[in-house]
Amino acid sequence: MRGYKDSNFNDRKEASAKAKQAILEKFRAQPGADDPAVIERQAARQKIIEAREVRAAERRAAREAEAARQAAAEAARRAEQAAREAEAAAREAERRLAERKLEAERKAARDRRYAARKARR
Length: 121
Prior knowledge:
Blueprint: H1 9-29, H2 36-120
C-alpha cells in the first residue's frame, strides 16, 4: 500500500492549473469550422438529416394512406350495415302488412258469420 501523501495547497493549485492547461490545449487542437474534415462531417450530417426527413415524410404518407383506407372500409361497412337495416325494416313492414291483412280477413270472416247467424233468426 502506498503511503499517504500530504498535499498542501500549492500542490493542489498546481494540479488544477495543469488540468486547466490540458483542457485548453485539447480545445485549441480541435480543427476550426473551415477545416475540410469538419465541412465533410457537416455535409454527411446534413445528408443524414435529409434522409431522415424523407423517411419521416414517407411514414406520414403511409399513415395517411392507411387512415384513408380504414375510413373507406368503415364507410363501406356502415353502408352495408345501413342496407341490412333497411332490408330488415322493409321485411318488418311487409310482415306487419301481411299481419294486418290476415287480421282484416279474420275480422271479415267473423262479421260474415255473425251476419249469417243474424239472417237465420
